[in-house]
Specification:
binds zinc ion, single chain
Length: 175
Amino acid sequence: MKPELLHCYHLLGLDPRLPAQRGWPVFREAGKLCELPPDRYGRIPLLRPDAAAAWLAMQAAAERDGILLELISAFRSYRYQTSLLQRKLASGLALDDILAVSALPGCSEHHTGCAIDLASGEADVLETAFAETPAFHWLMRRGAEFGFVLSFPEGNRWGFLYEPWHWCYHGNPGT
Ligand SMILES: [Zn+2]
Protein backbone atom coordinates (compact mmCIF):
# COMPACT_ATOMS: atom_id res chain seq x y z
CA MET A 1 0.00 0.00 0.00
CA LYS A 2 1.30 3.46 -0.96
CA PRO A 3 2.31 5.84 1.86
CA GLU A 4 -0.46 8.35 1.05
CA LEU A 5 -3.05 5.58 1.28
CA LEU A 6 -1.54 4.23 4.51
CA HIS A 7 -1.84 7.75 5.90
CA CYS A 8 -5.59 7.72 5.15
CA TYR A 9 -6.02 4.53 7.22
CA HIS A 10 -4.01 6.14 9.99
CA LEU A 11 -6.31 9.20 9.92
CA LEU A 12 -9.35 6.92 10.16
CA GLY A 13 -7.85 4.72 12.86
CA LEU A 14 -8.47 1.71 10.62
CA ASP A 15 -6.28 -1.31 9.92
CA PRO A 16 -4.72 -0.93 6.44
CA ARG A 17 -5.03 -4.72 6.05
CA LEU A 18 -8.86 -4.38 5.88
CA PRO A 19 -9.09 -4.42 2.04
CA ALA A 20 -6.94 -7.56 1.84
CA GLN A 21 -8.87 -9.22 4.66
CA ARG A 22 -12.15 -8.62 2.85
CA GLY A 23 -10.78 -9.54 -0.57
CA TRP A 24 -11.45 -6.08 -1.96
CA PRO A 25 -9.45 -4.55 -4.82
CA VAL A 26 -7.14 -1.58 -4.18
CA PHE A 27 -7.07 0.96 -7.01
CA ARG A 28 -4.31 3.37 -7.92
CA GLU A 29 -5.18 7.05 -7.81
CA ALA A 30 -5.24 8.67 -11.27
CA GLY A 31 -2.30 10.88 -12.21
CA LYS A 32 -3.35 13.12 -15.09
CA LEU A 33 -6.97 14.28 -14.98
CA CYS A 34 -9.01 16.61 -17.12
CA GLU A 35 -12.01 18.76 -16.33
CA LEU A 36 -15.51 18.22 -17.68
CA PRO A 37 -18.46 20.63 -17.84
CA PRO A 38 -20.09 21.30 -14.42
CA ASP A 39 -22.58 18.69 -13.15
CA ARG A 40 -26.11 19.41 -11.87
CA TYR A 41 -24.59 20.36 -8.50
CA GLY A 42 -22.18 22.86 -10.07
CA ARG A 43 -19.13 20.68 -9.38
CA ILE A 44 -16.43 20.16 -12.01
CA PRO A 45 -16.08 16.41 -12.63
CA LEU A 46 -12.58 15.08 -13.35
CA LEU A 47 -11.67 12.04 -15.45
CA ARG A 48 -8.52 10.56 -16.95
CA PRO A 49 -8.16 12.18 -20.40
CA ASP A 50 -8.89 9.00 -22.41
CA ALA A 51 -11.90 8.17 -20.20
CA ALA A 52 -13.15 11.76 -20.53
CA ALA A 53 -12.99 11.62 -24.33
CA ALA A 54 -14.76 8.24 -24.35
CA TRP A 55 -17.45 9.51 -21.98
CA LEU A 56 -18.14 12.61 -24.11
CA ALA A 57 -18.34 10.46 -27.27
CA MET A 58 -20.72 8.05 -25.54
CA GLN A 59 -22.90 10.86 -24.20
CA ALA A 60 -23.14 12.40 -27.69
CA ALA A 61 -24.03 9.03 -29.27
CA ALA A 62 -26.73 8.48 -26.64
CA GLU A 63 -28.13 11.92 -27.33
CA ARG A 64 -28.36 11.10 -31.04
CA ASP A 65 -30.47 8.08 -30.01
CA GLY A 66 -32.69 10.33 -27.88
CA ILE A 67 -31.15 9.15 -24.59
CA LEU A 68 -30.06 11.63 -21.94
CA LEU A 69 -26.98 10.53 -19.99
CA GLU A 70 -25.99 12.75 -17.10
CA LEU A 71 -22.68 12.50 -15.23
CA ILE A 72 -23.26 12.48 -11.46
CA SER A 73 -19.84 11.47 -10.14
CA ALA A 74 -16.39 10.85 -11.62
CA PHE A 75 -12.89 10.93 -10.06
CA ARG A 76 -12.62 10.78 -6.27
CA SER A 77 -9.31 11.08 -4.43
CA TYR A 78 -8.12 8.90 -1.52
CA ARG A 79 -8.46 12.01 0.64
CA TYR A 80 -12.06 12.63 -0.44
CA GLN A 81 -13.03 9.04 0.41
CA THR A 82 -11.23 9.39 3.73
CA SER A 83 -13.13 12.53 4.74
CA LEU A 84 -16.40 10.87 3.69
CA LEU A 85 -15.66 7.96 6.03
CA GLN A 86 -14.44 10.29 8.77
CA ARG A 87 -17.80 12.10 8.73
CA LYS A 88 -19.73 8.83 8.85
CA LEU A 89 -17.61 7.40 11.68
CA ALA A 90 -17.94 10.68 13.60
CA SER A 91 -21.72 10.47 13.28
CA GLY A 92 -21.60 7.20 15.22
CA LEU A 93 -22.36 4.75 12.40
CA ALA A 94 -20.86 1.27 12.75
CA LEU A 95 -17.99 0.49 10.38
CA ASP A 96 -19.79 -2.51 8.84
CA ASP A 97 -22.88 -0.38 8.14
CA ILE A 98 -20.70 2.30 6.53
CA LEU A 99 -18.85 -0.25 4.40
CA ALA A 100 -22.12 -1.74 3.16
CA VAL A 101 -22.61 1.43 1.10
CA SER A 102 -19.25 3.27 0.98
CA ALA A 103 -15.87 2.01 -0.16
CA LEU A 104 -12.75 2.04 2.00
CA PRO A 105 -10.08 4.50 0.82
CA GLY A 106 -8.28 2.81 -2.06
CA CYS A 107 -11.20 0.47 -2.78
CA SER A 108 -13.33 2.89 -4.81
CA GLU A 109 -13.02 2.43 -8.56
CA HIS A 110 -13.58 6.20 -8.77
CA HIS A 111 -9.94 6.65 -7.67
CA THR A 112 -8.85 5.51 -11.14
CA GLY A 113 -10.44 8.49 -12.92
CA CYS A 114 -12.13 6.00 -15.26
CA ALA A 115 -15.34 5.27 -13.31
CA ILE A 116 -18.52 7.28 -13.77
CA ASP A 117 -21.88 7.34 -12.01
CA LEU A 118 -24.70 8.13 -14.41
CA ALA A 119 -28.28 9.32 -14.19
CA SER A 120 -30.78 10.06 -16.89
CA GLY A 121 -33.45 12.22 -15.33
CA GLU A 122 -36.04 9.45 -15.30
CA ALA A 123 -34.99 7.78 -12.06
CA ASP A 124 -33.74 9.02 -8.69
CA VAL A 125 -29.99 9.41 -8.63
CA LEU A 126 -27.96 6.35 -7.59
CA GLU A 127 -31.01 4.13 -7.16
CA THR A 128 -31.39 0.56 -8.42
CA ALA A 129 -34.41 1.81 -10.40
CA PHE A 130 -31.87 3.20 -12.89
CA ALA A 131 -31.76 -0.38 -14.22
CA GLU A 132 -35.35 0.07 -15.44
CA THR A 133 -34.61 3.15 -17.57
CA PRO A 134 -34.13 3.30 -21.36
CA ALA A 135 -30.75 4.90 -20.56
CA PHE A 136 -29.58 1.76 -18.76
CA HIS A 137 -30.77 -0.48 -21.59
CA TRP A 138 -28.95 1.77 -24.06
CA LEU A 139 -25.75 1.47 -21.96
CA MET A 140 -26.05 -2.33 -21.85
CA ARG A 141 -26.41 -2.33 -25.63
CA ARG A 142 -23.79 0.24 -26.60
CA GLY A 143 -21.56 1.04 -23.61
CA ALA A 144 -18.90 -1.47 -24.67
CA GLU A 145 -18.53 0.28 -28.04
CA PHE A 146 -17.06 3.20 -26.08
CA GLY A 147 -15.06 1.01 -23.69
CA PHE A 148 -17.47 1.26 -20.74
CA VAL A 149 -18.32 -1.79 -18.63
CA LEU A 150 -20.85 -2.22 -15.82
CA SER A 151 -18.56 -2.73 -12.81
CA PHE A 152 -20.92 -4.13 -10.21
CA PRO A 153 -23.66 -6.26 -11.73
CA GLU A 154 -25.98 -8.27 -9.49
CA GLY A 155 -24.05 -11.01 -7.68
CA ASN A 156 -20.63 -9.47 -8.41
CA ARG A 157 -17.62 -11.32 -7.04
CA TRP A 158 -16.79 -8.74 -4.35
CA GLY A 159 -20.27 -8.79 -2.83
CA PHE A 160 -20.64 -5.07 -3.59
CA LEU A 161 -24.12 -3.61 -3.97
CA TYR A 162 -25.69 -3.83 -7.43
CA GLU A 163 -24.84 -0.45 -9.00
CA PRO A 164 -26.50 -0.14 -12.43
CA TRP A 165 -25.41 3.53 -12.54
CA HIS A 166 -21.68 2.83 -12.13
CA TRP A 167 -19.64 2.24 -15.31
CA CYS A 168 -15.91 2.11 -15.84
CA TYR A 169 -13.79 2.83 -18.91
CA HIS A 170 -11.53 -0.11 -19.79
CA GLY A 171 -10.12 1.22 -23.05
CA ASN A 172 -11.74 1.38 -26.42
CA PRO A 173 -11.78 -1.97 -28.22
CA GLY A 174 -11.49 0.09 -31.43
CA THR A 175 -14.28 -1.52 -33.42
ZN1 LIG B 1 -19.73 4.85 -8.65
